[in-house]
Amino acid sequence: MPDLKQRLTELRERLTELREQINFHNYRYNVLDDPIISDAEYDRLLNELKQIESEHPDWITPDSPTQRVGGQVSERFAKVPHPAPILSLANAFNGDAVREWFARISKFIPEGRPVQFTVEPKIDGLSVVLHYRDGVFVQGATRGDGNIGEDITPNLRTVRAVPLKIPVASSRSGSHARSGGRKNVRENAEIASHALSAEAGARKATALAMTLPQTLVVRGEAFIETQAFEEMNAQIEKDGGKTFANPRNAAAGFLRQLDSRITSKRPISLLCYQIVAADRVGADRVGADGDTPRSQFALLEYLNTIGFPTTTIAKRFDALDKAIAYAESWKDKRDTLPFEADGMVIKIDDLDLQQALGIVGKDPRGAIALKFPAREATTRLVDVGVNIGRTGIMAPYAILEPVNVGGVTIERATLHNYDDIARKDIRIHDRVVVKRSGDVIPYVVGPVIAARTGQEKIIEPPKKCPYCDTPTIRREGEVAIYCPNRDCPGRLDRAVQFFVSKGALDIDGLGEKIAAQLIEAGLIEDVADIYSITRDQLLELDGFAEKKADKLLASIGTSKQRPLDRLIAALGIPHVGSVAAEALAAHFGSIDKFMRADEDELTEIEGIGPTIAASIVEWTQRKDHVELVARLKKAGLTTKAERAAIDRSGGALTGKTFVITGTLSRPRDEIATLIKSAGGKVTDSVSKKTDYVVAGEAAGSKLTKAQQLGVTILDEAALNRLLSK
Ligand code: IVH
Description:
Elements: H1 2-30, H2 39-55, E1 79-81, E2 90-92, H3 95-106, E3 117-123, E4 126-133, E5 136-142, E6 148-150, H4 153-157, H5 174-178, H6 189-195, H7 198-209, E7 215-224, H8 226-238, H9 247-255, H10 260-264, E8 268-278, H11 296-306, E9 315-317, H12 320-329, E10 341-348, H13 351-357, E11 359-360, E12 363-364, E13 367-371, E14 376-388, E15 394-405, E16 408-414, H14 418-424, E17 427-428, E18 431-435, E19 443-447, E20 457-458, E21 473-474, E22 481-482, H15 492-500, H16 512-520, H17 535-539, H18 546-559, H19 564-570, H20 578-588, H21 591-596, H22 599-603, H23 610-621, H24 623-634, H25 641-647, E23 657-661, H26 668-677, E24 681-683, E25 692-695, H27 701-709, E26 712-714, H28 716-723
Parallel strand pairs: 2-13, 23-24, 23-25, 25-26
Antiparallel strand pairs: 1-6, 3-9, 3-10, 4-5, 4-7, 7-8, 10-13, 11-12, 14-15, 14-18, 15-16, 17-20, 18-19, 21-22
Helix pairs in contact: 1-2, 3-12, 7-11, 15-16, 19-20
Residues 87-89, 120, 122-123, 127, 221, 273-274, 345, 364, 367, 369 line the site of 2-(butylsulfanyl)adenosine.
């Protein structure tokens, strides 16, 4: 079977390719602290490799990245062997995958043994391993390759959240709890002694009554809080330095500094979640479990009580579904956390059971990460378009090769301004990192320098306005570049006003003031954005109550039905007014054909002279316009003349589908014309999509079907009432 043989060869090639790629990305991530693909993309590669290897276990070699506890140890640091492997986590991307995980491991759980789950945030930071001897911090390491870490003790000493001596009196109350662990726990000792509740006091007493192990090795995640990160980047930007792409990279960079004085100035936080090793008091070896709790939830409390910052949002559940629901509830609330979390971790609470479950590759069987949708991805920067803002500011935006970021396809992203482009050295054709978080407009984080081919083109700020040819200006002390022409057709507010005007798409309720408000709020960067505005976004704006928001959304929705000629007119192509637009729509019949027309074809059309034709071609050839039209099409606007003819009436029956059956007072054709002239559609057969069946005398099977499907049935009088509305 040559086919099978070829498939196997291809699969092997893919396997080799995947291993090489993963090794390369491991190196970028772990050694250079400069990853060039997103975590989600890395996970995809690794999952693909795991899949191939699980189908062909004989192909697994010891050097496969799946066989290693990821990471590499840099020669720059002394090596620290970990007392136990510093493991990673398997990922699940939805609740079902978590249920499958539990079904898989249930086989290994003794019958009847009750299972509880502890759910914690998965902090997007850097694993650190902290060694204590007789309660004194003696050494701190990175994860390294999972078996051997890098000695970063001097750096960790400067991190105020790392307790230098334990036990430290502290509690989860006070500012520490609110900030999720930002404040140095030692600073909180005072607050703690006042604020300790009776319950927490009792817990603390229990914990301290447990003899502190002589050797204690604690694992936590070091990170930079989102706000601190943004403030830091803003300062770096002000000082003209190179900003960090994300908090994780920044934290990793600081902790792996050779000069700890630099680390000491950085706002590094820590949350701990694991005891890697604890000797029994008097035991002769490190790693024997001492008097530490055997429940993950209790362990977090214990760690916190003896002085380690721990998460304040961990919860324990006695059913997996409840654990999943809790983990998922943080998906929409992730921005309320003071740090960047890329998911939630669901752990078997019973640590003895967790240990007994063992590991697969580098992941413990007893825990799984339920990942949040990704916020970052890399893609190609195809071109740069320009929007002219209300005040004439020229705002560059990226035209991207479509890329999926957390379930949403992104084709455009803001580039902020030309200074930003220069500072980040973003070039056309670059592979770029794009980010979409919360309600923020997607933006280009920066280029992937390592992926450059030499074909990239430097982006120059335009000397002339691309819409009106007016020389651009730069005002003193400002980064922005302006088109000084007040009547510039490219000005966003004008474009929007024109687009929504009566002769164009006629969007009721989107007047000058509202348009300005939407532009100001960043909801509209070009006219196509009108169609992606959400109810929630509107409700956040001043003066928008539910009724007003719904009304505006309804008229935006209705505007999608306007005929093709109105859409062509709305584009604001110089010299193309409503008469020319009508001729163009009638001639081409679709926006696609119109966009592809050349000057020769255009000038053949009655009423289209060489000036209009040239203007059209100039407009339709621009990539950002092609892109704009594609987005309008995707938003569901009428882009074909056929539908346009029906929709032209904008009548009472717009969007409704009718079937006519039985004998009526007039021929069915006539009734159909009436319905169509009111914007309705008439079809032959009854289906779930049918809105109304008009039934006359002796109606047969169509009427029966309508009754079965619950479709509204009208007699002639009812239809007439509907038509006269
Ligand atoms: S538990 C057996 N818990 O996520 C322990 N990891 O993608 C396995 N991480 O390497 C890890 N928050 O650096 C655990 N609450 C948390 C975590 C967490 C962040 C990191 C950790 C790990 C990575 C796996």
